[in-house]
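Recall the central idea of this unit: under ordinary conditions, the amino acid sequence of a chain determines the structure it adopts. In this exercise we apply that idea directly, starting from the sequence alone.
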Amino acid sequence: MNEKTYIIDLQDFTDGSINPYGTARGRKAHAKLLEKIASVVGIKTIGISLKNIDGADVSFLRESLIFTFKQYAKKISFFICDLADEDIIANLEGAAISGDFRVTCWIDGKCRFVGPAPSPASLPLLDVVLANRSVTTTQVAQALEMSVQNASTRLKRLSEEGFITRVEMSAGSGGKEFIYQVIGKSV
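Accordingly, the structure predicted from this sequence is:
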């Protein structure tokens, strides 16, 4: 369960710009990101740092990040870190909605999602995972006083929707158990 997290500085893919913008520049950054990600073998979680980015528009963020994340969605979990500017957050929200993809962001040590929202019925389960960072199905079922089967089905859906990750572990009974985790970390 101690999987490595790889951090990529977005500015390294913007030709040094601290204010990247536009579809064409976003596509160029997307191509560079794909090349970099292909060279990183065995990594299951990648964080994209925006620490050196002062501004970025919706089209750049959609083309460079959202489309990259979508391309690797079944193989790699992504998150955004070092993000503090509300304008960039708003533009990232627009990019995620436009690209129909959820993104986990770490802002001042707190997890926040941008893009399509979770269903109201999923919020209590998501809150338990967020509060604990890593949980089993049984822990969620007990915390919310629901059946393990119901919790399992709903947690799996949250994982498929990109809100959390699902990691298979060996259970003490010899079977398999799934651990559900928040994507990324506060870095």
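Residues 120-182 form a domain with the Arc Repressor Mutant, subunit A fold (CATH 1.10.10.10).
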